[in-house]
Amino acid sequence: MTFFLLIGVSVVVFVILYLAPGDPFSVLLEGEMPTEAAREGIRQAMGVPTTWYSQYFAWLGKMLVGDFGTSIRTGMPVLPELLRVGWNTLVLTGGAMLVTLLVAVPVALYSAVRGVTLISWPLTILAYVISALPLFWLGYLVLYVAMRHFGIFPFAFASLGSEPKLIYFLLPILVLGLGSGAISEVVRHLREESSRVLDEEYVRTARAKGASVWRHAFKEGFLLPVTAIMATKVPFLIGGAIIVEQVFNWPGMGRMAWQAAQDRDYPVIMAIAIAAALLVRIGTLVQRVVYVTVNPRASQE
Amino acid sequence: MKRFRQRPGEISEFSDLPLWQKADTIDLLYVGYGLLIVSLVVASYLLGALQWLPHDPNALNLNLLLAGPGTPGHLLGTDFMGRDLLTRLVLGIQAYFLPGLMAVASALFGGTVLGVVAGYRGGGAGLIVTFLGNLIDSFPRLVLILLVIAAFKPDIWYIMAVIGISNVPAVASLVQGKIAMLREKNFIEAAVALGLPTRTIIAKHILWYNCKALLIIQATLGMAEAILMETSLSYLGFGVQEPTPSWGNMVQSGANYFLQGNLWPSTAPALAILFTILGFHLLGDGLNNLLEGKRGR
Q1: Consecutive H or E run containing A136
Q2: Which of A142, A223, B78, B144 is deepest in the core (most CB within 10 A)?
Q3: Residue range A148-205, pLDDT digits in tens
């Protein structure tokens, strides 16, 4: 399934670029009237296939051996650059995921065990508000507070060079983790699932025996819902990372995508779209693996 | 007075009390707030479209830069060029209103058609809908939109087309699930037995009587997403360009002043975004609880 989806991903990216008006070769013909014959000549001179399917397969083949082409703006190969900034984005989104879980899990478990109490009410409203808050404004607010009250300039991270201080990392991660809107969904999903599992017969039996309830409810009531909801949140976190990287000047994939969209730098944005989709698929795959490990019957599907 | 007619004890889903009496107060509050926001947005859109604005949105007032809210003559204050914030906020709705409606309409239309086909045909068509859904969900929306922007041009209609198309599979799978559930019901069997044409059964008994609520809920959530995307893209500089106001580019253009301590010019549009998105979300969730009877809070 993952394989077919990745093929589908590459087809979608290719089709969007194929439908785009003009092609990169018009750049080479600048100043002349671009006649069909001239285009054809250039294509043949550069050994570019002419039919759409041979173009697609040529592109796919190159991509599979790691050749994502060269950036139109910088003239550098895309892949090394993408790997370099991709790491920064992984740190950002991974950290944000951790922040989300650190906040959401205690709240969800508390309300799953205790039921709906007086404090779960304001928490629900707070979750709604946070998920509606524009991420860029939250970013500016944190920047402002950091600058005014702590005298640090977290958006200078990019020019900091070799020795980034921890705090420059932490602020953007905090903003993305709190503001991406994932918290409210994790709370809601985990609370529902946990309280459902805690009511199950086998957990009640465990409780009656005096065995540890959490050891019995852990897989079904915690591990599965958390991985399931986090896997669906990966694309949202990557999307949020684009905004947060812009606010904090974080040198990651999101800023690269922004720059590429500004310059209409096809090879770069294509590579980023593929990489992002790959990350999302990996997230789903991890969820699937956890699910099958916990629930071996499902592997027969 | 009507309040006291309510009998104590659990009110069943099938009670014949009117909807607003058997509903939870909290859901009614959500829906009420949501409807308030929706009517405010529509009213402001019309005011903007008719040019009935308190000030000229581009009139500079260099004697009154960065005025706070409550300044005489400028209810919400002015921005860094002395332009009236309230006027620009009202006008900012133009940036997303019609494109957002288009995105929602295309998602609902495409999703309904696909969902009905998949729900009625089942099997292969159902698999295709699932596959398309997974495929679209593989792309972060913003990345997909940036790709389209790079390929075509930064145009709000392209952006909204992407949002509309990418919401099609989600709507389709909801409609499909609903149909799969409805097909088991007696009244559909009765309709088939009565010899009603399939067209009538689908249009009237399935879509109109039973999917209306679901589609309205999807519409409110879709509109919230469209607004969030438009403001994010305007913030990134791909949406509406200065001097035409949009909530996203208003936050962005006020950002430098924000960091210097003039919080208001960026915060006003941010609050507008917050209250509007909140309104659409609460409307969607409230309606979901009221009409679909889900109690998952």
Answers
A1: helix A135-150
A2: B78
A3: 877 666 655 544 554 556 667 788 898 999 888 788 888 888 888 888 888 888 888 8
